[in-house]
Amino acid sequence: MQIIQYPHPTLRHVSKPLLRFDAPLRRIVEDMFELMYAAKGVGLAANQVDLPLRFFIVNLESDADAREQQRVFINPVISRTKGQKVGEEGCLSLPGLYGDVTRSERITIHAYDLGGNEIREEVDGMLARVIQHETDHLDGILFIDRLTPSAAQAKREAIEDFEAIHAGRSERGELPSEEEMTKHWAKWEAKYC
Ligand code: CO
User: Fold this and answer.
1) Is 154 helix (H, G, I), strand (E, B) or coil?
2) Are 143 and 99 in contact (CB under 8 A)?
3) CA distance 88 to 102
4) What pLDDT shows up at residue 146?
């Protein structure tokens, strides 16, 4: 398992809700936390590890020693958004790139945890920002799609660099074909969605 980088097509895939969450998926979640800590991230969506599944993980401490802070959000839905706030974001699928994004200041998140328990919380601050960023991932939306106009202009070249690297790998046949990607998504969706 590895973190895929923009513009890998799975990052643009809109994931369908999960109908079940079994032991193999729990092990995948553990591996995702390890990857996230190694990359010093605070959130990671399943499609960032090439899985078209509707869940993401969060640990605002980004520290394997703070496992009690680990959260898993399955089938997340955001509602009752309030206020707006600009803040700098980054993404493990665009390493090294940071830019300002406007997000809702306060949200209500509805989801399920690993135990199948319902989560319904009103959150603000950093957690609200991370939840919005990760839920966007599951809808195929990246933070670079939501940059403030000045940030979008300032980061345009850096974004194009990621696209050029991807195009090069694609030309060298290092990436799966569109048909292979579609099959890969369908296989996971048939099993869990
Ligand atoms: Co991200």
Assistant:
1) helix
2) yes
3) 9
4) 98
Separation CA 75–CA 111 (nearest Å): 5
Q: Could you give the angle at the alpha carbon of 15 between the alpha carbons of 9 and 20, nearest 5°?
A: 135
CA of 26 to the centre of ligand 1 (A): 21
Distance 90 CA to ligand 1 centre (A): 7
Task: For residues 94 and 79, give the distance between their C-alpha atoms in angstroms, rounded to a whole number.
Answer: 27
Could you give the CA distance from residue 41 to residue 44 in angstroms, rounded to a whole number?
Answer: 7
Q: What is the distance in A from the centroid of ligand 1 to the CA of 141?
A: 9
pLDDT tens digit sequence for 24-69: 999 999 999 999 999 999 999 999 999 999 999 999 998 888 889 9
pTM value? 0.97
- Which amino acid, 32? M
Rounded distance, CA 7 to CA 163, Å? 6
171 is an active site residue? no
Pairing of strands 118-124, 71-90: unpaired
Place of tokens 């994004």: 101
**Which residue has 């957690």 as its token pair?**
127
